[in-house]
Design goal:
This protein has about 475 residues and is α+β, with helices and mostly antiparallel strands. About 65% of the residues lie in helices and about 10% in strands. Strand 1 and strand 2 form a beta hairpin. Keywords: Coiled coil.
Length: about 475
């Protein structure tokens, strides 16, 4: 060691070239052993990367079909461990039973150009890069001396002790991957829900149009009878106009329903990779797992872990650390140990307390997300129960209206009822049938919305 200098709160000791090599080698070992994988993990990771040391059965080539479109979610993290959050996402199963709704989901997933998937890939790459942050940094340095000479040198810096800062950076990168994974799951479920909303809207409109279309012939027959009765002077023009208005309204409803269905299906087709125009009907939607954690809560938990890691890294920067540095240049080699940090000032205590408060705020956001998710699911569950009750009542009302119509139709044939009276009863029957159709599709849509809130519209391994 040649000299010791003190400047700006830093302590620096310099060595010659041979001592520099020893210092940097020890620095790399000390910084790496703080949080690098153990020997067994490193050997296993090396075998997996280079492809030797495995049984012949394990070394068999993977079919091209299995690797053509790899899954976006992968629970294996860059540090060799597995993420419980991503594993939970992968094990989720869809509530859509085989049928048209599941076909709609598959069609829109096949055409999904997901921005969230690119963000997850970027976060994964950042996490892989963060696993090597314990290695010394190496970079050139070019300076102009007071005599006008250009001096180029190579600077090597290795962290010996940083109060856990490098570990916190790796934890942050890991949590960032989990946040991106949950965001991808949310994006996928929201896309499927949008497609289901369009499909159910189209199906409901088409079925309402079919109800009115099947009744239009009978209503037009009533209008013909009224025209003949008015021409014969048996009925006045007011009764004829009343029936004509009901026929016009029914035709207008049919046209509006068909337009709604066509618009929704065209929009759905724009989202899908395969034709969906030939799909029809509704398949069952089961209840999601009551123990499944809503995606909003999972994302809040991952964001809390990321915030805690960020606070830990910031805290490490507030405290003194120890680095081994060296410079190799044409003028000679130098090296030394540098102890220091951002500096210990009068506000250090408050800054550290603020970082601790960040941890508490992160946990508070998790609780807030849990409460919000519970409220939303409770609201949707209440709406579902109400819609199921209304749908059952609408079916009963439709049956009662159909029976009442049959009774009035028989009385009309017997000459005991007038056409305007029977037309009103027939219109009530059509209206109750249309309401029953709408409520039935509202029930299916609400079930899908509950599943989306939980994150159970798509199988985890299809994300």
């Amino acid at each position: 060691m040649t000299r010791v200098e003190g400047q700006g709160g830093h302590v620096r000791a310099t060595w010659n070239g041979k001592q520099l090599a020893v210092i940097l080698a020890v620095g790399a070992l000390l910084s790496g052993c703080a949080a690098i994988p153990g020997p067994g993990e490193m050997v296993a990771a090396t075998r997996d990367r280079v492809g030797f040391g495995r049984d012949d059965a394990e070394a068999q080539p993977v079919p091209a079909s299995a690797t053509a479109n790899p899954a976006a979610l992968d629970a294996n993290m860059a540090d060799g461990t597995a993420s419980e959050t991503i594993e939970g996402l992968l094990t989720r199963r869809t509530v859509l039973q085989p049928g048209p709704l599941a076909s709609v989901a598959d069609a829109v997933l096949a055409a999904n150009s997901r921005t969230a998937e690119a963000e997850l890939r970027a976060a994964t790459l950042r996490a892989e890069a963060a696993q090597l942050n314990w290695l010394p940094t190496l970079g050139p340095q070019i300076s102009l001396s007071s005599l006008g000479d250009v001096v180029s040198s190579l600077v090597v810096d290795a962290v010996l002790f940083d109060n856990g800062g490098k570990i916190a950076e790796r934890d942050y990168a890991r949590a960032d991957v989990e946040v991106a994974a949950v965001a991808l799951a949310q994006d996928t479920n929201e896309r499927v829900l949008t497609a289901l909303e369009l499909y159910l809207r189209a199906e409901a409109a088409r079925e309402r149009a079919a109800v009115s279309q099947n009744s239009l012939g009978r209503m037009e027959r009533f209008l013909y009878v009224m025209d003949e009765r008015m021409a014969a002077g048996i009925s006045d023009r007011a009764d004829q106009q009343l029936v004509a208005q009901k026929v016009d309204r029914m035709r207008s409803e049919i046209a509006a329903d068909l337009e709604t269905a066509a618009t929704a299906m065209n929009e759905l087709q724009a989202m899908a990779a395969v034709p969906v125009q030939n799909l029809s009907g509704v398949s069952p939607v089961s209840q999601p797992d009551p123990l499944a954690v809503p995606l909003d809560v999972l994302k809040a938990q991952a964001e809390a872990s990321r915030a805690v890691a960020e606070a830990a890294a910031a805290r490490a920067g507030q405290l003194p650390g120890l680095n081994a540095t060296g410079t190799i240049s044409s003028d000679g080699n130098s090296g030394g140990l540098v102890a220091g940090g951002d500096g210990i000032g009068f506000g250090l205590g408050s800054r550290l307390q603020a970082l601790e408060a960040t941890r508490e705020a992160a946990q508070g956001r998790v609780g807030e997300a849990q409460e919000t998710a519970n409220r939303r699911i409770s609201q949707l569950s209440g709406e579902l129960a109400s819609l199921e009750r209304q749908a059952a009542e609408a079916q009963d009302n439709a049956r009662a209206a159909a029976e009442n119509w049959e009774l009035f139709a028989a009385q009309l044939d017997a000459g005991r009822r007038s056409v305007p009276e029977v037309v009103g009863i027939f219109e009530t029957r059509v209206r109750t049938e249309r309401e029953a159709v709408a409520l039935r599709y509202d029930v299916a849509l609400t079930r899908a919305r509950i599943a989306e809130a939980v994150g159970a519209l798509v199988d985890g391994d299809k994300i």
